[in-house]
Automatic annotation (TrEMBL):
Pathway: Hormone biosynthesis; thyroid hormone biosynthesis. Keywords: Calcium, FAD, Flavoprotein, Hydrogen peroxide, Membrane, Metal-binding, NADP, Oxidoreductase, Peroxidase, Repeat, Thyroid hormones biosynthesis, Transmembrane, Transmembrane helix. This is NAD(P)H oxidase (H2O2-forming). The chain crosses the membrane at residues 210-234, 619-642, 662-685, 706-728, 759-782, 794-817. Residues 844-950 form the FAD-binding FR-type domain. It comes from Lates japonicus (Japanese lates). Signal peptide: none annotated. Its main location: membrane. One of its GO terms (molecular function) is NAD(P)H oxidase H2O2-forming activity. The lineage of its organism: Eukaryota, Metazoa, Chordata, Craniata, Vertebrata. It is found in: Apical cell membrane.
Amino acid sequence: MGMASQIAEREDNIVVEDLRDYMYGPLRFTRTDLVAITIQRGRDFGLRSYTEVRKALDLPPVKTFEDINPELNNINPQLLHDVAELYNRDISKLELFPGGLLESLDGPGPVFSAIILDQFERIRNGDRFWFENKQNGLFTDEEIQTIRNMTFHDILVAVTTAEANDIQTNVFFWRDGDPCPQPAQLNASVLYPCTNATKLNYFDGYKAGFGIFIIVLFLFPVVSFLVACMVAYLRKYRYRKFQRRRKAGAKTEEPAVGITAHEWQGHKKPLNPVSVEVDEKSRLQVYDRSAAAPRCLNLGNQDYLDIHLSNDHHRKALLLKVPKEYDLVLFFDDESKRTAFVKHLRPVVTDVGQEIRVREMREKELLKEALTKEQRAQIVETFIRHAFSKVLEIEKCDAGDMSGVSREKAREVLQCELTASEFADALGLKPDSLFVDSMFTLADKDGNGYLSFQEFLDVMVIFMKGSPEEKSKLMFSMNDIGGTGFLSKEEFARMLRSFIEISNGALSKSQAEEGIKALMEAAGFNDKEKISWEDFHYLLRDHEKELQFAQLNVKGMEKQGKKRMSRDQRVSFICPANRSSTSTPKVYVKPKREQYIRNPVQQKIQHFKRFIENYRRHIVCFIIVYGISAGVALERCYHYGLQAESTGIPETSAVGIIVSRGSAAAISFLFPYMLLTVCRNLITLCRETFLNRYIPFDAAIDFHRFMAMTAIILAVVHSLGHVVNIYIFSISDLSILSCLFPKVLSNNGSEIPLKWSWWFFQTVPGMTGVLLLFVFSFMYVFASHYFRRISFRAFWVTHYLYVVVYTLTVIHGSFALLQEPRFFIYLIPPALLFLLDKLISLSRKKVEIPVVRAELLPSGVTHLEFKRPQGFVYRSGQWVRIACLMLGTDEYHPFTLTSAPHEETLSLHIRAVGPWTSQLRELYTEESLFELGAYPKLYLDGPFGEGHQEWIDFEVSVLVGGGIGVTPFASILKDLVFKSSIKSKIQCKKVYFIWVTRTQRQFEWVSDIIREVEEMDTQELVSVHTYITQVAEKFDLRTTMLYVCERHFQKVWNRSLFTGLRSVTHFGRPPFVSFFSSLQEVHPEVGKIGVFSCGPPGLTKNVEKACQQMNKRDQAHFMHHYENF
């Protein structure tokens, strides 16, 4: 009754608040807006605009917003004005729904009325059961008429218990006098307020778990790093244990002499076990574990002996104050031993008329009172710096300004006197060196066994600023012990011996005696009984320049002083000028450089041009690889950003989808084609083809690293993109997800999406993706340079996980969650080539190679000579991989062949620097071979090519080898000489071999190879230069005489005193820029010079810098190929 009598508002263009803000919505939004939804739905379905619909319904056109509803415009003109502004007064843009609402004033307007009428007529005419359809025979004419006359009032009375008078005849309108009157018209004020909108966030309760899981993913590299650290620690521990076990037999412990104690050397330093004893000369000898006497304290040169004893902590500590030296602090096992030591000192001190002053104090104060070795070293360093600041033009700040130091401390520095051992340490020499002994005796004018500030200064002035005559006279006086002005032959030989000792073992005793004999013979001293200073100075006549610039390099002061010339300016030799026995062209290290000087802009341009020329193949390949990667990535980004609108995926998670699919496309290209960079056999074969002119096969491993790093970065980006996707999917309605992924999800009407954990752990892409990240973290961490060097086996094992990586990647994309799988398309071509390369290696690895000869050389080098397999063809400079199953592992390690291609056997020189190489050396010792009965056999894989084999493609090649890095050049030198001996046509006309070694005695086997090359090199194709870095450069006064001996020996015997070779021996590090400059002078017609270096990174880096410096000029182009170990 109420619905029939309740007075409601008439139809108008106003949508009530209930429908505008509080209409029911989907599950995630409990309320929504009917008007907004209707307008958006019309746009989604492409409904025509309001004006187009009027035209389609044959209604009169409307040209302005005011014409839509003139009556409404009179009542509320502001409403139509505001609507017009929303559409920029362009009525053609007005949607159907708002236009139809604006027509309504007292019921539907013309458009809605026409649409309703049209829809009604279409439904009626299409309904065969319509009551007015006489053709269906359902109703008679009378029944049709009865139905037409029936009203809603009749229906309500018929279906309810209401009487006819209880409801008005026209139930839709109530008028005065009708039954069931209402007190007032219904309005919003008498209604209950609508419930406010609430939201259901699908992600509530899962935020913490999602965040923790993402953090765990980022911790994968951290976990793998910790595991790698543990593996490295265990590897180091086992290696040290192996070394200790190997040295256990050779190491013998000598019984301790005197009283045992522990020496305290400073805070935070371990106690050093020592034994102390007083000898017959009243000197206190302090022995370490090896029973050597590193320290000797003279107790007889002081009036009294100060001893401080600790009176706490079990009374174990003792401090012996030593004037002019650092103090001696001893910890004894108990007080009785300390008392015995003091009693042991008393009779010795009493015999020389001294007394002992004993004081007791707390142990903490005793240690604070002691002058430690470090503190003494600081005083000595300041002492030396201030001495040099008096001699050279050094700023006070460089010399250690004492303006801020206390007066007592400054006095302590200036009153400091150097001991012989401190003086030797300052010169970088051994305390028992004859040179130190002679020089210290000469400088110690008062003979007290110490050098005062003035005594030290007097000697330094002559050494640093004296004339050649003064320096040679000082060296002569150092050995003229009697001051007679003459030296006997024995004294002169002793002087030469003192200089030769400075080489720190670079010469053996026999070599030293040969050098002395040659020098005396060359100088004509054999017929003289006595040698004067004039004779000695005449001996140095050809080395006036060396003596002029020679200075005494003191530790810590090498780079000080403005007047010191740079080595590149001073060095004037690569090939001696007076060598008449050879026709080798002179190579000067100081060329004429003025004509090459350009302005900086021209140098930069020239440098850039040479860089492009040097690396043009690298640049082209780099552009191709990364261009393809960028292309496939951009294609996928463009597709999902602009072309995949029909799928609905971009609108759901545009950023995440674009990022993940673009990076996945690039990864799909990089990971498969990365395999080509490690196909060693195919690369070696391709080197011999025309492809070597277009592809830089030398940089295969570098490209492998670049591609791998790019791929892992893109893998992380890909993962982050999917993290965004999974978050979006976790808050999207199930109806939307079922539309996006119909193969995976179905709409069950719940609207609640699946949790984030489902995407990670219950889908194939999620599980394989997490596993891939875990595997990547281990592969990449163990492939880093540090861990690869420490534990090659761990790197080897983890890198074999590439099989797991490619398997998981294929499975990862096969689920076709977003697109059809494509990875296999990129994988098949390179995988087939990689499989072929592996089959070639496997066919060789099965063959055991018998070792013919094994020799253990000095410096931990093992020489292995083994049988050459049938059909084994290689070029000089190539390398192989070997394995030895007797070591309990099948891992292969790379080594360069030192044999030449024409030799019947293969040879390797392997230096023991790690666990595997050390164990291999141990396997070929006499003890191991006696137990085994025969040489352990090897497994061989190779040969493989590298840049060094291209030496033959240059007219002039420079080979630079450092340490064990000379191995590829040993093969090259022998091959070059052999080819020239059989008149083989080769492009290379000259080879300069620079051998940089700490001492030639480290690698005597190289000297043997070079000696063999020199004997066979009849056409003088090879020029060898040896640089011994253990000996200071020749402009250090300590080694000037050593240099003189070397030159005189070379002059007399036509071979080096150090190496026994005809090649030139130099001291210090090679000046590569000067050397390369001289090559341009000697070979002006050569356009390209090949530079090949192998050794530690520092060496190859210096060579690279020198090549870059030379390539700034417009003369010969230096092309550098290097290999680090």
